[in-house]
Amino acid sequence: MPWHISAFYPMYKMTDVSPTPASTLKRAYEIGKEEGLKYVYVGNIDDAKHESTYCPSCGTTVIERRGTIGQYVVNHLAEDGICPECGYRLEGVWS
Questions:
Q1: Are residues 85 and 60 in contact, defined by beta-carbon separation less than 8 angstroms?
Q2: Contact partners, residue 68, CB within 8 Å, separation at least 6
Q3: I need a labelling partner for 28 at 20 to 30 A (CA). Which of 5, 35, 52, 82 fits?
Q4: Cα gap 95→39, rounded to integer Å
C-alpha cells in the first residue's frame, strides 16, 4: 500500500497557519519505512530522495521523481515493474 504524505501550505482562509516543515514530512517518511511500508512518498516539496520509488528488496531507485506540481519529471528505471538490479517484481500496474 503506498502512503503519500503531503505538506500543508497556508492559503485562502487559513493563512494564519504555518506550512508543514520539510523535517516533519521526512520524519513521517522514516516512521512509515520503520513500520514496514514499502512505498512511502513525500509530496508538495522538491525532494527526489523522498518522492522516488525504491526496490523493497535491494534499495535500487526504480522510479525517479523530482519536482513540484506543474513541473514534475518521472524517470522509469524499472521496465514492466521489474527491478533492473535484483529482478524483484514490484507491486502495481505497469502496462
A1: yes
A2: 44, 45, 46
A3: 82
A4: 19
Which residue is listed with cell 520503520? 34
Whether 78 and 88 have beta carbons less than 8 Å apart is answered as no
Beta-sheet strands, E only, within 1-95? 2-6, 39-43, 53-54, 61-68, 71-76
pLDDT at res. 65: 83
Could you tell me which of 26, 61, 18, 30 has the C-alpha nearest to residue 46? Answer: 26
All three cell numbers of 69: 506540481
pTM exceeding the 0.85 threshold for the entire prediction = no
